[in-house]
Amino acid sequence: MKKHYLLVIIVFATMGFSALHAQETAPFGRMNLALRLSTMGVGLELATPLGRHVDARAGVDALPFSLGYDNYSLNSYAADLEPAFGYVPEYRAKGKLQMVHGHLLADIYPSAHGIFHITAGAFVGTSRVRIQGTMVDASNGPVTLLPGYEWPVINIDGYDVTTDDGRANLDLMLGNTVKPYVGIGLGRAVTQRGFGVKFELGVLYQGDYTLKQDGRTLNLKNTDGADDKDIELIGEYAEWANWWPMVNLQFTFRMY
User: Fold this and answer.
1) Is the pTM of this model over 0.90?
2) What are the two backbone dihedrals, phi and then psi, of residue 237, each rounded to the nearest 5 degrees?
3) Using alpha carbons only, what angle is made at residue 64 by residues 59 and 68, rounded to the nearest 5 degrees?
4) Which of 142, 147, 231, 239 is least buried, going by the fewest C-beta atoms within 10 A?
5) Mean pLDDT, 10 residues at a time, over the chain (256 residues)?
6) How far is CA 89 from CA 10, 150, 160, in A?
């Protein structure tokens, strides 16, 4: 008789553990909050299981990075600028990288109890390099047009950039709004314990860039032999950002 009672206890205990485990691996059965430090910036993320092999993650990242003012030579555009000013001015400008994204990702674990995972999903948002500057003379004062001249238009790598009032503010929009992502990593987004660490490497495809001036999209001109394949300064800077590398270290905290 005692053996029967023991068997019943074991069966009910096993059923209870299985039910608890099923509840914890069900969507929103557990929830983790993570602090992210990555090449997408600083962010917060929520994660919940979608089963024993898959965790879903959603969050937001922001990366504001600014550079101070500096002077840049415009000697390459002397033919356009010197007649209008009597000299070749310099371009005094500052730059700012602005990245704000939300993300929706899934971690796939080949082993239900392992820490290695493959990640796939997408980031949604904007990546922009904002350049604000003015043309200045040798004493860093504002440029003055000679009588009878208008503010010149200079061709930068096939783009016609205006210099009205000596200003040239440009926005380099890096890629599309929706950016597919794949990666690999170590660690669990949804932890059994109260605290965990997760590391990840991956890459986003941002897509082609767009150049804007004062909110107006600039179209590439076939000037001086320039075309879509013949872009120097802007193209060289932007093309490497088509594939944005991801390095992510995050600290996870179990909420329930």
Assistant:
1) no
2) -70, -40
3) 175
4) 147
5) 48 38 69 97 96 96 89 90 95 91 98 95 94 92 94 87 92 91 96 92 91 85 44 56 92 95
6) 86, 15, 18
